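Final report, closing paragraph on structural work. Over the funding period we assembled a curated collection of sequence-structure pairs, and we close with a single example.
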Amino acid sequence: MAMRHKILAFALALTLAAGFSADAFARAGGGGSFGSRGGMSFSRPSSTMTAPGGGSAFQRSWTSPSASPNQGIFRPGAGAMGGRGGLFGGFGGGLMGGLLGAGLIGMLLGHGFGGGLGGGMSFIGLLLQLALLYFLFKFVMGFLRRRSAAQGSAFTGASSFGAPPPFGGNNPGAGGGFGGFGGGAPQPQKLDVGAADYSAFEQLLGAVQKAYSDEDLNALRAMTTPEMASYFTSDLAENARRGLINKLSNVAFLQGDLTEAWREAEAEYASVAMRFSLNDAMLDRATGRVVSGDLSTPQQATEIWTFARRPGGGASDWKLSAIQQAARA
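Its predicted structure, as stored:
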């Protein structure tokens, strides 16, 4: 019995430690990687002095390979259900679904594509139709594989921006140039960002963290894309369900540099690696008791924040469209 109690106590301690570790980094974004970077969503942010390992891949994103990369970036809910993957998603879904619906079901009912063949020819007609479906299926799958390969190679370019070091940092490895998106879509173009843009990025870093701490959804919606606002809303709702509130204070920008900045047909983007400190604590919503974290001891974090705006916008038009954790070098 004593051994059983020791095992239970040890398991409880591990559970509490894991919970405290996760909550200690519960800042806006929760220490995860989520959002969208337009046509660069499937290419990880490249290495910089601030984030030598580059950025991690998205864990949550409205963007998928079969959807328009800018779908829903400035429109609420437009991209949440877009871009179904799998065998019958996108082009394959429309073509194969129609063929299988009209052809295969028709054959099962004895009609075939064109109403069937009567008499002794019905069996031969069935074999011909099955053969036609087989070769058509192979053609469609080959087309989808070639298109997928073309898209994959499009997001692994290696041209360098050679941008001037912003925020007083250095950017020796800002590779991750742009290939085409496949399908004849226009290629993204390099975007020049200046001092006013960098100032806006730094201000948004603190303003977003403050709005998250205050649970000010209106402010979050004003500073982020609809996708990011939906994630923040969900995270805050989960905190409330657990009876907790995440308090953030003393956000201080420490270092940052540009990963890449580019222009697409429907939006302009800038990904920036930022190292910052803040006081981060999870409190009991009813009593104000500190459950995890520390209200007085600052913690440091390094993240890649991507900002988006409509083409031709100014420094005040940037909105947060993604947060990615810095990967280990």
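The chain has two domains: 31-80+158-178+186-325, 90-153. The mean pLDDT is 73. We thank the funder for supporting this effort.
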